[in-house]
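Reference record
================
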Amino acid sequence: MQLDYLNSFSNTISSGFPEKMVLFDCETTGGNPKYHRIIEVGLIIIEKGCVIERWQSFVNPHVEVPELITRITGINTKMIEDAPSFMEIAHTLEKFTSDRIFIAHNAKFDFGFLKNEFDRVGIKFNPKILCSVKLSRGLYPNIKGHGLSAIIKRFDLPIMNRHRALDDAEMILEFFMRISGIFDEGTIKTACDSQYKRPSIPPNLAHSEVEKLPKKPGVYYFYDKNGVLLYVGKSINIFHRVMSHFYSDHKNSKDFKLNLKISHINFTETPSDFSAQLLESREIKNLNPIYNHRLKKSKYLYQIKTKTNSFGYKELDIDKIITKNEVQADRYGLFRSFTHAKKQILKLSDEHNLCLQLSCLEKNNNKPCFRTQLNKCGGACSQKENKDDYNARVDLAMIKYQMHVWPYPGPILIEERNSDHKSLKTYHLVNNWIYIGEIKDEDDFFNYGLSGYLSPVLTIPSERIKTLNQFEFDLDTYHILVRFLLNKVKNDNLTVFSISKIIDNQK
């Protein structure tokens, strides 16, 4: 079974965001927090990526609501004359905002009003602040317009009542969910952390090494004083990502030791995040940096396969792939180790009540499995459970591990454009989820046997396809290509050209 297409925005919030957040918006009688007042507040409480509460309240400012504000918000003086004063809701707001990252769109505005209102009732208000405008600028440095209206338009977000507090807070939430499906956890965490933490330059690193770093996509390299490569990373903004390594609250001793050794930084700019991810993956495998553990080359890969036993029940087993080109699209998952594959099968067995004997996790001794005694197995191992019911659960369990079918008839050429300068382009040759190489110029184009350079019709002799098929499958490259080619938002800077096979001339 195969999935032809996967293109969805995330309906959850990335773990790169702070664990405890309050998304806040307020409507006011004007723009000056010293003498204008709040007339409505709306907030959304989020913990560990889940919305746990929404809250909204009108606020009686004890002054008239200006006509201009009514035209913008729809709120008039009569609507709020029976609403509680700020003093009456102050302790509720304090409870909601306590020990949480305070997030607002143009947070300086909302924080200024809220702080002044709290000051008037004698409550100190000094939260950590994250501005979603700055977050948008950090993630999309080449896009103009980061106001809430611009973001709503950019992502086509549905909103009923613009310029109402809770509705606008909902738009921040929608924005966070959209970017959670576009950017990885590390990128989002870096963008968030940069707003409320301060970096400390490593002791052996000159400031000039940092000052030279571009705020553009690419790959960066950390070296020690002897020129030994320590670490390779990538980012849509090299400067911001490198600086994120230098925050003083290192999570583990590895980060601390790495920072003590860094004395030189090099970098390679790329047109966009697409080639940055591809280059990072290749460089880590080829250069083997000391502190990189992810993306390193795997000697073998493993897949889960299904087979039907003599009683008609589906069984799971693990196949070791000796050569990477043996990857089977009709099998499930790609795992770096036998142990990892086994852990995933155990997880699936727990989630879908699968029999451990039929899932290669327990020996078959011609008697019911151990879980039968615990009522966690329906008896498929002793043919007591209906085989169709059991097999349906196996199919359901394996859905998310289905391999993606290559959605093109043959090789493709990917045109990658630079976000700043659309005329600057790079080309990548890809075939059946395998990255063949970068096409830098016309010579590269012809060396791969391609014809039709810079023309609408690209061709390749059928015999040269065999040459392309000799390139090795790489798991990390596969995941990168799936993320970009099957996601309409992430491939905004990419154009795909199919390459037609032509039969060689017979002599």
Observations:
- Residues 165-180 form the longest helix (16 residues).
- The two ends are 42 Å apart (CA to CA).
- The chain has a mean pLDDT of 87.
- Residues 301-401 form one domain.
